[in-house]
Amino acid sequence: MRRLQAAFRLASAVLSIAAVTMVLGQGMPESTFVMRIAVGVLVAAMLQVGYEATEEQSAEA
Fold this sequence. Notes:
This protein has one domain (about 1-60).
């Protein structure tokens, strides 16, 4: 069960990073590619933390 959760978290993080990078990529020059990836990672981390916090609250109820 834990392997499945870890795989889901990894896939979720990768998809979040890709989505944010694509959205931020609209109209930005290529020199900011590393910055787009960095922001994508930060946003994905915040989304994941928020998701896990809500999941824990749901489990407690």
